[in-house]
TrEMBL record:
InterPro entries registered for this protein in UniProt: Homeodomain-like_sf (IPR009057), HTH_AraC (IPR018060), RmlC-like_jellyroll (IPR014710), RmlC_Cupin_sf (IPR011051)
Keywords for the protein's UniProt record, in alphabetical order: Transcription, Transcription regulation
Alphabetical list of Pfam families matching this protein: HTH_18 (PF12833)
Gene3D superfamilies: Homeodomain-like, Jelly Rolls
Region of interest (Disordered), ranges: 1-29
Occurrences of domain HTH araC/xylS-type (ranges): 158-255
PROSITE patterns: HTH_ARAC_FAMILY_2
Source organism of this protein record: Streptomyces phaeochromogenes
The keyword Transcription is assigned to this record: yes
Protein name: AraC family transcriptional regulator
UniProt keyword Cytoplasm, yes or no: no
Annotated TM spans: none
Amino acid sequence: MPKDRQPSTVPAASEEATPQGAGWLPHGYQLDPHSHVQGQVVYAAAGALATATERGTWVAPANRVTWTPPHFAHSHRFYGQTDVRVLTVPLDLCGELVEHPSVFAVSPLLREALLALTDRPERRPGAHRRLLTVIVDELADAAEQSLHLPEASDDRLRAATALLHEDPARPATLAELGRMVGASERTLSRLFHTELSMSFHRWRTTLRIHHALAHLTEGMSVTETAVACGWSNPSSFIDAFTEVVGQTPGRYQADLRNDNR
């Protein structure tokens, strides 16, 4: 795919018609918070992207695709040289999909439909609409694989998670974090479950996987990534990454190299 295509952009903190198209974005490129009057599907055919909302952050490597409903404020950050594909989902099709931002697995059919719809001009009236309905059908049937990192509203829990955001490799136990923010271990454990619907261990693992995806996309080795993100050894990192992402970190990097050829 040519690398001189220009990406579509949306002004910050605005609500605009949803952009559609394809483009290469540099590592670290960001779009400030905004929303769209229609639904939006964003796919990183190479690279990775993070979508942040008031409900937390969703990360999508090249085997996932993001969905954002209409009028839902969000921002994007791109990792690695990213081949980004953006689709508008008209309001009459949005009801087929979930009512909250999410990330879905990319089937071979879904990938090819996404690439075709963003690469090819419409040669016959209605062709793009027919292909878009295929994409919506695939997304409606796909399992959510959100890599979702929810954010807290309780001040004590927000303070604890902020410490981990600052340093994902921080080895602090839940009791140690509690002492830093003025809450007991039992209270923080309860808040993780009631507010974030996951355990402390699961939340921190997901946070570390988010950072690991960024490091791997930037070209950091598996061993270096494991250390940087807080794992004591590469094998435990590989196990955790494979469980969450669905492929080993080595396979993920190999796919990135193949996609960028």
